[in-house]
Amino acid sequence: MFEKCHKCVGGLKCSDDYASLKSGYWWEWRNKTHEERYRDFIANLLAFSPVLDASSVKYSFPMPTPYRCPREESCKGGLDSLCDKGYEGPLCHVCSSGYYKQLQTCVQCPSKKWIAGQLSIIAAIAIIVIVILLWTSRRKKKKGEKYSLIDMFFSILKIVIGFYQVTHGLLQAFS
Length: 175
What we know:
Structural class: alpha+beta
Largest sheet: 2 strands, antiparallel
Number of helices: 3
Number of strands: 10
Strand content: 15-25%
Helix content: 40-55%
């Protein structure tokens, strides 16, 4: 107010003669006093008849530095640098309580009923596999084959564990 204009650069959104953050950017005020003084400055700018004393027409503290968020959808911008639901902390890159990180995205934790349902399905599949192995093992014993049930079970288990280790490693590498 009553001074030269400054170019609106890097992550700032300028309107009505003041700057705030664009969506996708995060900043942190040095302290509460700086933030409150800036809010007072904005309120005075937007007032119908602004106060014109020296401390009301100029914001004398440095503005915080805007940083681009790694996941732009998680940073809402504005004066408070709010984070989207499920995100918090610097650059809105930390998952809130009740959320977990899945490929750089915070996802809400499943309910206990959902987990119990999944475990029930896995147990049912395991029982079916064991029954099939027992059935085929008895047929092979009648035919005189040399591999036992336990050998077949461990070989299949080794293949399944190896598959999930590789899959998990790939997901971590590409995230």
